[in-house]
């Protein structure tokens, strides 16, 4: 990578953009809200059930000027969701500062595997066993969203709930391919452990891109 290119990447002025789109947030606390998704390429967490594995290799996604992304987002949306991939692999200070300068709310969806950068109004922490969150993200998370793929994930969820700050919302969400098998278990678990709530991938039920 050329020195100037690396400098712009390190500063977060250019970022590897996989895709950007205006849609309805389907998951978590902000489910149902109109949002502009900014999906960055690059992830080394490697969940075997990931539904966007094409995001993992950052080199497949063009380095894009953040100012261009912000210009497009701010024309049509008030809420931006930064996701990936794993967006915290990058310096997000410039991106979030400029989004806020345009009057936009900034949300992030992250595994928490890297230290926080950027100024976020809402942090959705979705921890993964392969690479656990760092403490700063546990401390700052507004919601803890644990994906339930098998029965052991309920144990993992409780382990993560013990680490996150006391004000974080606690959400359980079935992995989409396991919803028929795991949803009845999640329902019963939440009934027995009402500190948890159920998060649904409503955009998939409604067939919203």
| Proportion in helices | 25-40%
Number of discrete domains: 1
Q: Determine the mean pLDDT.
A: 93
The helix/strand order is HEEEHEHEEHEHEHEH
CATH superfamily: Aldolase class I
Task: Summarize the biggest pleated sheet.
Answer: 9 strands, mixed
> Can you tell me the residue ranges where pLDDT is under 50 for at least 5 consecutive residues?
none
Report the principal-axis shape: globular
**Proportion of beta-strand residues:** 15-25%
Number of helices: 7
Distance between the termini: 34 Å
Q: What is the class in the CATH system?
A: Alpha Beta
Number of strands: 9
Q: Give the name of the CATH architecture.
A: Alpha-Beta Barrel
Give the helix/strand class.
Answer: alpha/beta
- Radius of gyration, in Å, reads 17 Å
Physical arrangement of strands within the biggest beta sheet: 3-1-2-4-5-6-7-8-9
CATH topology: TIM Barrel
């Amino acid at each position: 990578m050329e020195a100037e290119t690396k400098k712009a990447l390190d500063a977060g002025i250019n970022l590897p953009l996989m895709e950007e789109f205006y849609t309805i947030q389907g998951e978590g606390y902000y489910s149902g809200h109109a949002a502009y998704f900014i999906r960055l390429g690059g992830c080394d967490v490697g969940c075997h059930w990931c539904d966007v594995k094409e995001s993992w290799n950052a080199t497949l996604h063009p380095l894009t000027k953040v100012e261009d992304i912000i210009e497009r987002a701010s024309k049509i949306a008030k809420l931006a969701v930064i996701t990936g991939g794993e967006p915290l692999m990058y310096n997000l200070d410039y991106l979030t500062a400029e989004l806020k300068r345009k009057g936009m709310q900034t949300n992030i969806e992250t595994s928490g595997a890297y230290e926080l950068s950027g100024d976020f109004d809402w942090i959705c922490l979705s921890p993964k066993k392969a690479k656990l969150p760092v403490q700063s993200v546990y401390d700052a998370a507004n919601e803890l969203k644990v994906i339930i793929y098998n029965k052991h994930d309920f144990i993992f969820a409780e382990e993560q709930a013990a680490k996150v700050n006391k004000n974080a919302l606690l959400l359980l969400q079935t992995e989409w391919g396991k919803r028929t098998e795991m949803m009845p278990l999640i329902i019963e678990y939440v009934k027995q452990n009402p500190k948890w709530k159920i998060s649904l991938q409503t955009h998939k039920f409604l067939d919203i891109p």
